[in-house]
């Protein structure tokens, strides 16, 4: 009877393999099968992980966008003041409209009046419009509405510009959860309310972005405070108008002067990928900025073009010697120029008006016509001695 060993010897002869060689070959074949199976499983696990990660990322972003809702009110070209009654409206108009003319000349803002008790203040310049709004409210409260009083109140309101920029800066900072910035920097943040980018109000964008950024940072384990400050200050360079450079570089240079933490400055320097990301916080600020700026309805081009066109008209008028103030009205269809009477005579004023109209024709972009009005006036003021 053949034994097990006899069968093994016959198998070795048939296969031309020794027992050890056959064993080795079987193990090698098994290893190949296991490797293939392992690779298949790993690829499946990777696909599952990617699907889960993509879904989780979507959930984080959607949740962040929901948290970005804000009730911050941004005005674009019109502010409204509610009057208590018709009598006040009449006093604002003045005899033959002299009070309205004095107010528009002092503020550079156009007044629109209709049947209601609302007065609309129209201007492309948001700061100019805010000064006018506050001045008009002060005049209504004071009750003495006449040209000399209008000039006085407007001048006082302009001097208080720093005060309400600080108020607005605090409102934006507090909405973002930041309470310890230097006051000069808070004042600059206050200018966000009066600045737009592609039609999107910078104050609204900043608060929205910060809420999103904080939510994302909380979900992914990034430093929330760095992200909070990075989002709040990421566009601060857009407020710097007296220096040359893009807003990222201007913002970084400004914040270094205020000794803001390097981690925050880096997030701002990298939020447009001008330099490579160095932290999770920088990526988070970049993502939150992209969501707020690119969501449907966030930005639109026409308002930005409109502001540039109005600024260009005023810039051309200011290029003439002796010009003191320039105000563009009616969407650029009218420009009023106030000259210094000591530098420009009546005859020179006539020539200036002609030359300005021709220069606007050659250099400005406008539809229809532009009405050019140049004003030259003198006034004397005297105060009686106290009795």
Structural notes for this entry:
With 387 residues, this protein is mainly α. It has 4 domains: 9-46; 78-159, Ribosomal Protein S8, Chain: A, domain 1 (2-Layer Sandwich), CATH 3.30.1370; 191-294, Hypothetical protein af1432, CATH 1.10.3210.10; 314-375, Cation efflux protein, cytoplasmic domain (Alpha-Beta Plaits), CATH 3.30.70. It has 15 helices and 8 strands. The protein has helices spanning 4-15, 19-67, 86-93, 98-107, 126-142, 147-159, 161-176, 183-190, 202-220, 224-233, 247-257, 262-269, 280-294, 301-318, 346-363; strands at residues 78-82, 110-113, 118-122, 196-197, 200-201, 323-329, 334-339, 371-375. α15 links the parallel β7 and β8 (371-375). The protein is elongated and about 135 Å long. It starts with a helix and ends in a 12-residue tail after the last strand. The model has no long low-confidence stretch (mean pLDDT 81).
Number of helices: 15
Spatial order of the strands forming the largest sheet: 1-3-2
Q: Rough shape?
A: elongated
Count of extended strands: 8
Look at the structure and name the CATH superfamily of the largest domain.
Hypothetical protein af1432
Low-confidence runs: none
CATH class of the largest domain equals Mainly Alpha
- Please state the second-level CATH architecture of the largest domain: Orthogonal Bundle
CATH topology of the largest domain: Hypothetical protein af1432
Mean pLDDT: 81
Helix/strand structural class: mainly alpha
Computed Rg:
35 Å
* End-to-end CA span: 148 Å
The biggest beta sheet reads: 3 strands, antiparallel
The domain count comes to: 4
H-E order: HHEHHEEHHHHEEHHHHHHEEHE
Beta content comes to 5-15%
Q: Helicity, in percent?
A: 55-70%
